Amino acid sequence: MRIPNFALGAAGLATFLALGEAVPRLGLVDADYFSPPSRIAGALREELGDAAFWSALGDTLTGWVIGLGIASGAAVLCGLLITVVPFLRQVTASTIEFLRPIPSVALIPLAVLLYGSELRSVLLLVVYASFWQVLIQVLYGVQDVDPVADETARSYGLGTWARIRHVTWPTALPYVMTGIRLAAAVALVLAITAELVIGAPGLGSLIAVAQASQAVPDMYALITVTGALGLLINLGARAVERRALAWHQSVRGETVL
Hints:
By secondary structure, the chain is mainly α. It has eleven helices and no strands.
C-alpha cells in the first residue's frame, strides 16, 4: 500500500519535533540556547497576541510584495527588450554576467548610506536580488522559441509585438513563472536579512531584538514564523504557476498524474 505524501511529511515533522523536544530535555544541549518546541510554541502564542508582531509581519510583507513586484516587472520588460533588439543583448551580456553574481548583502552598506533604516533600503536589496532571478529566466525562455514558429509568424506578416504576444511570450511564460517563484523566495530572504542587519521595521528586526534581550524562545518562535511564511509563499507561487500555465503540457501532465 502506497503511503500518501502528506502522511510521510507529517511523520517526518513529528519526528523532528520529538527530537527537538528530547535533545534539550535530556541535557544533550543547553535549553537556554536551544529551546524545546513546547517552549517555542508558548512563545509563539504570546507573539500572536501582540500587536507589534502583526505590525512587523505587515512591514515584512510590504517590503516583499513591493520589491518582488518591481523586480519582476522590470526584469520581464528588460528581458523582452534585450531579446527583441539583438544589439542590446550583445552590449549587455558582459554587464549582466558581471552584476548578477554580486551578493545583495554586499550592498547593505550602500543601502544604509542612501536610505538608512527606511523601507527603501529593504527594497534596494530585494529588487536587486530578485531582478536577476527573473531576468535570466526570461532570456532563457526567449532563446527556447522555436525558430520555425517564429519564421512562420513572420511569413504571415506578424509584426514584432505581434510575434512577441503570440510566439515569444507563450514560450517564455513557463520560464518567467519559474523565475518569479524563485524570486519570491529570494525576496523574502533579503527582506528579513535587511531588517535583521539594518534594523528596518519587520520580523527580522524583532528577531534581532529578541536575540539581544536573551529572549531565546521568542527568537525561535519568530524564526519559525519566517519559515512558515516562506513555505506559504512557495505554495502560493506554485498554485499561481499552475493556474497561469494550465494550458501548458507540463501542468496538464502533472494534473493527470
